[in-house]
Amino acid sequence: MVKLVLSIIVVVTMATIFFIFPDFFGSASNESNLATQHCEEKSSSNSELAYQYREDRCEGIIDVKTGNPVITLISATLGNPQATGYPQGGKLPFFHLKFFLEKSSKINIEVRELTSKNDYIMDNVKPRHVWGQGWNDYQWKTEEVLEKLDTSLTINDLGVVASLEKTRGKEWITPVIFFDKNKVPLVKKFTYYFTFRLGSRAKIDYDLFLFDEQIKKTILENKPLHEQDELFVIDLSTSLLKESGFFELTIRGKYAHGQSFSQIVRFYHNKNIVNNI
Length: 277
Known about the structure:
The protein has 2 helices and 16 strands. It has one domain (42-269). By secondary structure, the chain is mainly beta. The protein is 14% helix and 43% strand. The longest helix has 19 residues, at 2-20. The protein has helices at 2-20, 22-40, and strands at residues 52-54, 57-61, 71-78, 94-101, 108-113, 120-123, 134-141, 158-167, 170-173, 176-179, 191-198, 202-211, 216-228, 231-237, 245-255, 260-269.
């Protein structure tokens, strides 16, 4: 009788806790389920290489196509991706990302092919800790997907964007150092590389501003790129950026059929960036 009463008390207590604090039971499993569900939206395949949740990220081959955007930022890096190549008789177990944050923030990391050989993508990263102020690091295994693709990929074939906020026609990002060594490559002079994808060939020009709440200082104005292919790169030497602060890259373009478009990319630059890595 006593055991029965105790059992009833335990059941009632657990039920009460569940109804008052449902997240206590379901937060971890729900987070995992949401991540898995998010991954499944981009692939209908059951292949082991299909886009799906893997340890702390979504990664794989997608087969759900999206519309052809007017202009899309597909890579924003600090320095060229440093591919060392696979050592003889061995593999490179990880690809590495390193990025600087002016303050602790949530970010969305997306890695995808610059040209669609395999329709590979890696995104929806779940960090083990909050991305903090200063330099942050992330790495992921190559053995689960990248090493098994029919058409091999190096980091030179991939673009990466670490986005803090994205709205129509405007994106806040932090440029990424992308490498496949265990250590960040030693580079004395860095350049920012912004890679965009267009719907078709178009004429492009761009501006670069330093801005804060009070001022908007012009660094480059009406810089022409003439007619560009569907994939084009804007490179900005860090020597142009004399101050630490927030910068705005504004791209304007016009397609042959007359459609005009624009895109704004904002990022934070630290003038002592080389010394602080």
